[in-house]
């Protein structure tokens, strides 16, 4: 009886998409006596985990460093500022948002056009030989293609060479000669989907069956996966068509035994088009036993579909309807937690092999800047499956309640989607700097908010399966499963979570030390994405010196330095602009770029100019700023003193930027002197190339800075030798304000380094 209570019927699975709730269907004490969570979900697999455990170091040694670096600023103040003027840019998670959608777009992309689709439809409608195909040529080809594999390869080559009529004629002729043609049909069907002609594929599919050629297991996979691609033909209902084929496969008269390939392809179709009702129908039909019962990949695809539905459901909800957003998200989050309850139930008993991809996918489902508690649950998830210590205090917030930082980032993301990606942000204006007294006041306000959150009434909250991420006692015990070992993807997720939690920036440093620096930790070599995520975390806490240490000690030695890392690092200086050492730190970033990159990235150069501008506008910061030339201490007039300090700053900025500008100028000159097609054709194949548009923007801004210095404002302080050095540079850069030259640079797409730029001596 107890065993039956641990399994939900497949009929229940079909109701998941409608937001079915478990309620108190099972008694906690009964399930606890079985060693299961009070909220186990449905279960249908039996496997044995073979992963080896790597226990992490004790939490205590990281808690000490966590306390010592807990200098992250209060982010309650963020809500006071308008997101539209912010350069904070709200890159909450690149791989969660932009990168994931980009991969989905690439996967669904087709290579055909309207003419090709019409040609394929005409060929599919015909029953005999296509026009213009010589029968003798077909017979001569078939004479040497007795092997079905060779025949399929030949058809693939003909399709690749755009000789589609000949390929179709050969397949039909081979059928009349009773040859084995299944591989050739599969090639043709796949080609139709690749060209965006699913209706043509279905006509060929039906033509194949009418010729008594039964679909093979691979044929069903091709048809189902093909329907995930875009269609250039109107009137296609991909989910309905896919389910029709899927039912043919499951039919008792089918000669093909369904396998994981077919189940996963059908789940992928449902997820691609966000049809959750159909997805739960398919899940409900999955076998509970046998070699083709669901695996970790099956659950990963289900969670991927939930994640896609989350994005799709809340994409167009305006900022003033957050309750609607919460309602839509809540339903899908509970479905995902039920899925995870079943995963852990099976993993606990050794019936399911857990993998890292499944854990990471569940984490991405939970992460949301407007949902602090579920974002925190990601850390509990990693503790449960990988034994990664939790260094962040429990936010103790109600479900679907975001931190102030998270709310601010979510608002930015929504505004970016509505206003487009071409708007210009400003890192220095997103949040004004407060005095020490104001900081203390806001920290007190934050504490009050936390206390209020802790005391809120939660009796009316819907069940959220909050204990589904509790630790599993059976892990690493005799006969039990083993912890997984985290990798770069999980480090990226942890840093993302720490960035959006109210008290996450300081623990984020602890996690970085644990994963990458501590010899007793996980010894993970950070990839570029990890470095980007950590630098963004440091940007929030205004830790420009730490960012410089990361660049010097970790990024440069591994050879992974690029313009993007320096851009994020330089933006740390923009956030840390009251630091007396900020100019020296920013100059160090420029020196690193000059030493290790053949062509400077324009973004950090532009950031450096923005930093200089904001420092110039606030002379009180110049009084303590290090890195300026000695200023005449005898000046007693505050106006003269301020002008002298501003000139010292501008002179330092010009000297720091001049070698970068000269190097960019040489490459941009080559663009102007070379054929346009050489620089504008194709994608960027050169990893060291930079954007022509961004390079032009930097040159224009640098020239404006030079013109200001040469103006009357600094007429009394600029020496003749300085003027003689600056004027030729300003004149040289003015050419990029010429509309014709600017247009050519813009159209060049990329600027490539010259051969001598690779000499770093």
Automatic annotation (TrEMBL):
Source species, domain of life: Eukaryota
PROSITE patterns given in the database record: PPR
Keywords tagged on the record: Repeat
PPR repeat residues: 181-215
InterPro entries: PPR_rpt, TPR-like_helical_dom_sf
Keyword rRNA processing: no
Protein name per Swiss-Prot or TrEMBL: Pentatricopeptide repeat protein
Organism the protein comes from: Talaromyces marneffei (strain ATCC 18224 / CBS 334.59 / QM 7333) (Penicillium marneffei)
């Amino acid at each position: 009886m107890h065993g039956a209570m641990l399994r939900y019927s497949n009929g229940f699975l079909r109701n998941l998409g409608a937001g079915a709730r478990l309620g108190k269907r099972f008694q906690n004490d009964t399930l606890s006596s079985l060693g299961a969570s009070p909220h186990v979900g449905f279960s249908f697999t039996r496997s044995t985990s073979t992963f080896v455990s790597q226990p992490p170091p004790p939490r205590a040694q990281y808690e000490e460093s966590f306390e010592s670096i807990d200098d992250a600023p209060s982010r309650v103040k963020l809500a006071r500022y308008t997101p539209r003027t912010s350069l904070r840019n709200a890159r909450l998670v690149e791989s969660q948002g932009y990168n994931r959608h980009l991969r989905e777009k690439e996967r669904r992309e087709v290579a055909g056009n309207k003419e090709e689709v019409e040609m394929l439809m005409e060929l599919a409608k015909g029953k005999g030989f296509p026009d213009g195909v010589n029968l003798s040529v077909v017979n001569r080809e078939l004479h040497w293609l007795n092997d079905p594999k060779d025949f399929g390869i030949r058809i693939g080559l003909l399709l690749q060479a755009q000789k589609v009529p000949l390929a179709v004629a050969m397949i039909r002729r081979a059928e009349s000669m009773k040859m084995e043609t299944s591989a050739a049909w599969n090639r043709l069907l796949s080609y139709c989907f690749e060209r965006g002609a699913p209706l043509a594929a279905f006509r060929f599919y039906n033509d194949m069956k009418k010729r008594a050629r039964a679909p093979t297991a691979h044929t069903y996979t091709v048809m189902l996966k093909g329907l995930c691609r875009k269609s250039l033909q109107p009137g296609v209902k991909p989910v309905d068509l896919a389910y029709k084929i899927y039912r043919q496969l499951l039919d008792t008269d089918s000669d093909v035994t369904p396998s994981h390939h077919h189940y996963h392809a059908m789940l992928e179709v449902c997820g691609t088009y966000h049809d959750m009702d159909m997805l739960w129908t398919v899940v409900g039909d999955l076998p509970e036993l046998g070699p083709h019962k669901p695996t970790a990949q099956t659950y990963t695809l289900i969670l991927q579909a939930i994640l896609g539905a989350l994005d799709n459901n809340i994409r167009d909800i305006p900022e003033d309807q957050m309750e609607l957003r919460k309602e839509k998200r809540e339903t899908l989050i509970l479905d995902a937690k039920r899925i995870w309850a079943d995963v852990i139930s099976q993993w606990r008993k050794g019936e399911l092999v857990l993998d890292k991809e499944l854990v990471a996918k569940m984490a991405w489902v939970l992460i949301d800047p407007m949902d602090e508690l579920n974002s925190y649950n990601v850390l509990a998830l990693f503790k449960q499956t990988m034994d990664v210590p939790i260094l962040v205090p429990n936010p103790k917030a109600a479900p679907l309640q975001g931190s102030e930082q998270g709310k601010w980032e979510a608002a930015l993301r929504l505004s970016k989607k509505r206003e487009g990606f071409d708007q210009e942000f400003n890192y220095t204006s997103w949040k004004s700097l407060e005095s020490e007294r104001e900081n203390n006041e806001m920290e007190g306000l934050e504490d009050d908010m936390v206390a209020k959150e802790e005391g809120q009434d939660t009796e009316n909250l819907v069940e959220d399966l909050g204990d589904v991420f509790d630790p599993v006692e059976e892990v690493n015990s005799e006969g039990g499963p083993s912890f997984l070992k985290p990798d770069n993807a999980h480090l990226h997720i942890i840093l993302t979570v720490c960035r959006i939690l109210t008290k996450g920036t300081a623990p984020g440093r602890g996690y970085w030390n644990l994963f990458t620096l501590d010899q007793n930790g996980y010894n993970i070599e950070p990839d570029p994405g990890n470095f980007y995520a950590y630098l963004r975390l440091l940007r929030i806490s205004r830790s420009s010196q730490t960012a410089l240490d990361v660049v010097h000690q970790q990024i440069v030695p591994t050879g992974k330095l690029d313009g993007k890392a320096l851009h994020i690092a330089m933006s740390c200086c923009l956030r840390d602009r009251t630091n007396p050492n900020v100019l020296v730190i920013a100059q160090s970033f420029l020196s690193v770029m000059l030493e290790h990159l053949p062509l400077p990235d324009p973004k950090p150069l532009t950031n450096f100019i923005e930093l200089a501008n904001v420092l110039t506008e606030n002379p009180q910061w110049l009084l303590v700023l290090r890195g300026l030339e000695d200023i005449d201490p005898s000046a007693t007039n505050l106006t003269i003193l301020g002008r002298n300090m501003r000139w010292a700053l501008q002179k330092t900025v010009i000297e720091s930027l001049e070698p970068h500008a000269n190097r960019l100028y040489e490459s941009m000159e080559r663009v102007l002197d070379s054929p346009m097609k050489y620089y504008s054709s194709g994608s960027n194949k050169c990893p060291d190339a930079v954007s022509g548009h961004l390079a032009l923007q930097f040159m224009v801004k640098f020239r404006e800075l030079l013109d200001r210095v040469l103006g009357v404002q600094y007429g009394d302080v600029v020496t003749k030798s300085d003027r003689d050095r600056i004027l030729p540079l300003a004149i040289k850069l003015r050419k990029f304000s010429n509309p014709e030259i600017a247009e050519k640079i813009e159209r060049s797409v990329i600027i490539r380094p010259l051969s001598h730029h690779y000499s770093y001596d």
